[in-house]
């Protein structure tokens, strides 16, 4: 709560609050509900698993999944402090679990690297299962490009590039370099974790979630043995469609509780076909074309 209050009273955020006080009310209502439920859960157990842990490939509906579970009664996001170098490199530390009550229910949304030290650490902190999302890497490239055009990285952040000063073809080629050389290893790493740990990982493909959100959400609920009524599932699916534009979502996310904030853009399948130049296509085939075949997004390199 104190971290949120500090964020609220930054001048830019304070102006946003004055223009839209509904967002502040939403946050205080959420915090109050979390405190009340944490107290009630001392006396009874609502769900089988205390932690819903999401580890998604960037730009692969991780936020949508988080928002869905954020509306499941009983689960709440919490303050997860970590050292900057740990967080920015998509790793995790024990400090992230400092404010997680062992008796209550918590929701984590991460892009966690599937390295052994990270897996061991989350297991030691009562994470029993993980949902992993991923997506056609070509669409990840396009989503990353548009995100960084709207919200550029800081100069000290990994893979910094000034896309707004580059032509689109060059900027997308840079994205292809970043995505193609790093993201396949991330996906394969989680495949390996799944093979070594029975019933520990559930994979959710972006394309399946966008095409049939209710079916995929039910699969994830079943994975965690969460029982909620069909009417509630329908409500959650409807409320997490992501209708607003990315700029509005990101602006509101500065004030909204983490469980309900969003950064959706379009969620389009196959958008790369409208964005890639011939140079981009050739570059992607060289760097990660084989990975598309391994991940069952293409049968060969003739696309």
Q: Can you put this structure into words, describing what you see?
A:
With 303 residues, this protein is an alpha/beta fold. The chain has a single domain (2-294), classed as P-loop containing nucleotide triphosphate hydrolases (Rossmann fold), CATH 3.40.50. It is built from 14 helices and 4 strands. The protein has helices at residues 2-8, 11-19, 22-40, 62-70, 84-88, 116-124, 137-150, 168-196, 206-211, 213-223, 230-239, 246-253, 272-275, 278-294; strands at 51-56, 106-110, 130-134, 201-205. The protein has a 4-stranded parallel sheet with strand order 2-1-3-4, with helices on both faces. It is globular. Mean pLDDT is 88; it is low at 4-9 and 249-256.
CATH C-level category: Alpha Beta
Number of domains: 1
Structural class comes to alpha/beta
Distance between the termini: 50 Å
| CATH fold assignment | Rossmann fold
Shape: globular
Work out the helicity level: 40-55%
Number of strands: 4
Report the average pLDDT across residues.
Answer: 88
Largest sheet: 4 strands, parallel
Q: What is the second-level CATH architecture?
A: 3-Layer(aba) Sandwich
Strand content: 5-15%
Give the SSE string.
HHHEHHEHEHHEHHHHHH
CA-atom Rg in angstroms = 20 Å
Multimeric status of the protein: single chain
């Amino acid at each position: 709560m104190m971290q949120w209050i500090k964020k609220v009273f930054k001048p830019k955020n304070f102006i946003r609050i004055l223009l839209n006080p509904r967002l502040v009310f939403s946050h205080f209502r959420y915090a109050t509900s979390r405190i009340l439920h944490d107290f009630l859960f001392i006396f009874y157990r609502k769900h089988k698993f205390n932690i819903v842990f999401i580890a998604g490939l960037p730009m692969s509906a991780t936020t949508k999944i988080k928002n869905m579970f954020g509306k499941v009664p009983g689960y709440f996001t919490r303050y997860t402090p970590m050292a900057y170098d740990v967080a920015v490199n998509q790793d995790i530390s024990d400090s992230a679990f400092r404010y997680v009550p062992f008796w209550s229910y918590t929701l984590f949304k991460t892009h966690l690297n599937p390295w052994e030290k990270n897996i061991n650490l989350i297991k030691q902190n009562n994470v029993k299962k993980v949902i992993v999302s991923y997506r056609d890497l070509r669409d990840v490239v396009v989503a990353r490009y548009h995100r960084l055009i709207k919200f550029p990285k800081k100069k000290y952040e990994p893979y910094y590039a000034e896309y707004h000063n580059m032509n689109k073809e060059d900027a997308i080629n840079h994205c292809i370099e970043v995505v193609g050389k790093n993201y396949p290893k991330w996906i394969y790493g989680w495949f390996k974790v799944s093979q070594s740990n029975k019933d520990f990982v559930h994979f959710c493909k972006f394309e399946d979630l966008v095409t049939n959100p209710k079916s995929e959400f039910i699969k994830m609920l079943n994975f965690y043995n969460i029982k909620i009524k069909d009417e509630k599932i329908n409500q959650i699916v409807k409320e997490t469609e992501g209708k607003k534009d990315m700029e509005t979502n990101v602006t509101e996310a500065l004030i909204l509780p983490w469980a309900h904030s969003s950064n959706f853009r379009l969620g389009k399948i196959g958008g790369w076909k409208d964005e890639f130049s011939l140079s981009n296509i050739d570059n992607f085939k060289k760097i990660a074309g084989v990975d598309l075949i391994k991940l069952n997004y293409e049968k060969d390199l003739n696309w």
